[in-house]
User: Which sequence fits this backbone?
């Protein structure tokens, strides 16, 4: 690393240079991060402590998705919150690489989990008689292993390429996090090859998987015509929640990565959306329209209150 880079730290310009605006940003981000952790971890605890939910693969995957959202936000939000209180926002070279790795690791794993959840709903609705034999716990375990492995490979490959780029002069990043495209603009060499690779490894993959997910949910919705009215409404409610989460996750990623390597002024807004708003909205989307999860949450909360009163 030392042989390829003279830069030991990067300066982040953040969301704003105005001290008053920074204080407002601090409060908003702090409250958002607390809500993200609270909401997502509540789903994880609720499903983990409810045998009636944990016995279904759909809720097992939902708990895993919520855990990934909490981890993804933790990889970015704490430093962003602290940076909003200081004038000179910096991040070390090693810290920058670590942040990029964590961000793409959890995001890559989440892409696979969302795909798995779509497959789970396809089997449950289109092949209900074979659901228990297809979506067995052995397969669920394998799919989760694939998610962790896929996220790791997606992230580590990009880090390996980044570590071979020379950063020998400019070190100011017009962003609030370290990311691929802003860093490519600071490299002291031709980055067209790596830029194309980053486009393929992030943007192109997002477009393909997003298209496949929309096609799969379209197939599911088309197959509902032979179901009863009650079954149609229940499936529509579940699939509607999944589609909303898929759109919230993939559209911002496509806007950021599915283009030639470059940075634009609106990148910060889009990044805030998928790093803060999406993990914040996911728990609400899944709980507001899911009666089973809401009932389980009430049960968990009741048990907590009983234990608290006994003490």
Assistant:
């Amino acid at each position: 690393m030392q042989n390829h880079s003279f830069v030991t730290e990067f300066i982040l310009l953040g969301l704003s240079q105005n001290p008053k605006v920074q204080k407002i940003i601090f409060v908003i981000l702090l409250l958002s991060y607390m809500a993200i952790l609270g909401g997502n971890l509540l789903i994880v605890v609720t499903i983990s402590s409810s045998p009636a939910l944990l016995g279904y693969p759909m809720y097992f995957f939902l708990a895993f998705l919520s855990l990934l959202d909490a981890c993804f936000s933790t990889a970015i939000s704490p430093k962003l919150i602290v940076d909003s209180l200081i004038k000179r926002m910096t991040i070390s070279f090693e810290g920058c690489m670590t942040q990029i790795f964590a961000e793409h690791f959890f995001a890559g794993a989440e892409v696979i989990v969302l795909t798995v959840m779509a497959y789970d709903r396809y089997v449950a609705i289109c092949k209900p008689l074979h659901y228990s034999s297809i979506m067995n716990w052995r397969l669920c375990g394998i799919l989760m292993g694939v998610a962790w492995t896929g996220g790791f490979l997606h992230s580590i490959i990009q880090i390996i390429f980044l570590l071979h780029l020379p950063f020998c002069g400019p070190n100011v990043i017009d962003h609030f996090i370290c990311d691929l495209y802003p860093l490519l603009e600071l490299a002291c060499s031709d980055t067209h090859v790596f830029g194309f690779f980053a486009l393929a490894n992030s943007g192109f993959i997002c477009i393909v998987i997003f298209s496949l997910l929309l096609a799969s949910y379209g197939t599911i919705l088309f197959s509902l015509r032979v179901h009863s009215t009650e079954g149609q409404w229940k499936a529509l409610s579940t699939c509607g929640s999944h589609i909303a989460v898929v759109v919230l996750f993939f559209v911002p990623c496509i806007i950021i990565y599915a283009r030639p390597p470059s940075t634009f002024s609106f990148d910060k807004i889009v990044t805030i959306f998928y790093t803060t708003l999406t993990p914040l909205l996911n728990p609400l989307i899944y709980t507001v329209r899911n009666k089973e999860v809401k009932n389980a949450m009430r049960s968990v909360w009741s048990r907590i209150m009983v234990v608290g009163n006994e003490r």
User: Anything to note?
Assistant: The radius of gyration is 21 Å.
